[in-house]
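Appendix B, example 12.
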Amino acid sequence: MNGVSTLLIFVGLFLLGGAVSFWKQQMPKGVVALLGVGSALSLIAGILRLEVWS
């Protein structure tokens, strides 16, 4: 596991926490969706960069 994949996974989890927090605060659904999509993309990129696949 290198630094970039760790950073991407951390950012994805951070954004996911923000999306959950905004959802609980009844923020606009567009903001929650944007955070959710950013979180998903970041987590997927971090997981795909892991060196266990090769």
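The two ends are 12 Å apart (CA to CA). The helical segments are 3-24, 29-48.
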